[in-house]
Amino acid sequence: MKSGGSSFWSNGSVPLIEPEFLSSIIAVASDIALVITQDGDILSVLINQQDTSFGKLDHWEGRSIRNFLTTESIPKLNAVLAAFARGDAPRKAVELNHSDNAIWEFPIRYSFHPFGNDKSLLMLGRDLRPIAETQQQLVQAQMSLEQGYEARREFDARYRLLLRTVHDPIAFVSVGDGRVRDINEPAAALLGTTREDLVGSSFFQEFRDRRGEEFIEGLVNAAISENAAGLEVQTRRSRSRVTVTPHIFRAAGERVLICRLSGDDGTSVKYDGLSLNLSVLFDKGADAMVFTSIDGTVLTCNDSFLDLVDAAHLGDVKGRNLAEYLGRGQIDMSVLIENARRSGQMRMYATKMMNDFGSKTAVEMSATYLNDRSEPELGFVIRDASRVDAVRKPAPAQAGDDSNRNVMELVGSASLKEIVSETTDVVEKMCIETAVALTRNNRVAAAEMLGLSRQSLYVKLRKYGLLNKDADSSD
After folding, report:
1. Are residues 279 and 374 in the same domain?
2. Residue 156 maps to a domain
3. How far apart are the first and last CA of the chain?
């Protein structure tokens, strides 16, 4: 063995070590030391006297080491012995698991060294049980942390669900900076804005003639006083009188106010029977319902719509444009928005809904323009028409209209080229009539739906005699 290039160990300066001292040196230098033959028989067992956890292993001597190894460790030992037999000593230590009486196991990391002239091997081992115990403690600590995180997520989910479903207007306000930590939708509606605009903003700014520090201090005094009466204030946006009833608590070293808002009559937001029924209908209705912004961005929807587009939860569709799920995309969306804004609503618009996987479903839609708020929205009711289409019969063709004759009747009386030419005109006319009807005679929208220019649409309307017909219908 050489270290640092020193010649001390190779020039004969090292005196011979007496046998009784050699064994004690080896025992102290390692936790356990074994001297084995090339066949694996144990010649000697040396144990560090400072470590009593091994017990007495005198019965190992004279027996094969394989009798005291676990099943998965025997191939490792055989590989090391085979390498020494080839003259290729392993450079890395080998981890072996010992077993005794089938109930006691302990892992040891051994380094192998040639020993003596009879080609015996000296195995110097380090007990890995302290490392294993440390690793086990780390695993248990990690599992405890994971359990703590799971419990925290569970409580957070309960809190979010409770805040979302409770009908009372509730706001959480930090005492330190006076900002809104969280607020539910009824409270945001009472203040005349949305939850997203309020979270993180200063709470006092939502009320008239209120200063930040004085207002928060007044809420704290009201919360700790024996008088349960709240503060009467006036909202800045809606100009309505509300009463703020605060309660104070401490969380994560920070004082937080939970404020219950009520109207000037001392009551919370009223939910009559109609509102409750509409809420239940939205949640459990068979037809899909979607509310979007004026440009078609999805704000909320019910579970029936999620089933229709094969979405897992609201987060998958919220913020996306409804046009992404329509068969004709933005063309359908433009027709729906334009007609709803012009007349307030649009009924029975037939199209197809498409999910993210490309699957299409025939639907019938109705759109309603909701302009009773500062930012108008659109409400859509969507019904699955795939089953209805299977039982519906096509409308009978008008008598005397040669262009709508059954194609089968032309076979034998005209050439194939003439049949194809005539049926092409029939299909083209039907598509133009359908587009004009869907867009309520809005020829710009109809041309966009058909992928034609406005001039080309006028040419085809004139070709099929639909100009006068459309003019008469619009009068």
Report:
1. yes
2. no
3. 109
CB distance 30 to 125 below 8 Å = yes
Of 210, 237, 263, the last residue of a domain is 263
Beta strands in 101-155 (DSSP E): 104-115, 120-127
How far apart CA 139 and CA 333 sit, in angstroms, is 54
pLDDT tens figures, 325-359 = 988 888 888 888 888 888 888 888 888 888 888 88
Domain shared by 205 and 245, yes or no: yes
3-class DSSP assignment, residue 143: helix
- In the chain, how many domains are there? 4
Residue 242 φ/ψ region, left for φ over 0, alpha for ψ in the -120 to 50 degree band, beta for the rest: beta
Predicted model pTM? 0.36
Tell me the mean pLDDT in the region 70-87. 87
Determine the residue type at 58.
D
The residue segments making up the domain with residue 66 are: 19-127
Of 77-86, 197-206, 446-455, the least confident:
446-455
Q: Is residue 143 part of a domain?
A: no
Does pLDDT of 269 surpass 50?
no
Q: How far is CA 99 from CA 67, 104, 331, 426, in A?
A: 8, 5, 76, 89
pLDDT in tens, 40-68: 898 888 887 776 677 778 888 888 988 88
Answer whether residue 193 is part of any domain.
Answer: yes
Which residues lie below 8 Å from residue 239, measured CB to CB, with a gap of 6+? Answer: 208
Mark whether 387 and 423 lie in a shared domain. no
Q: Is residue 238 part of a domain?
A: yes
Instruction: State the chain's mean pLDDT as an integer.
Output: 79
Nearest to 297 by CA among 336, 323, 316, 335: 323
- Cβ–Cβ < 8 Å for 422, 416: no
Residue-wise pLDDT for 230-261, tens only, equals 788 888 877 778 888 898 888 778 899 999 88
Cα four-point dihedral sign 420, 426, 430, 436: positive
**CATH number, position 440:** 1.10.10
Instruction: Determine the angle formed by the axes of helices 330-343 and 443-450, rounding to 10 degrees.
Output: 170
CATH number, domain of 333, equals 3.30.450.20
Closest to 175 in 3D by CA, of 233, 236, 251, 231 = 251
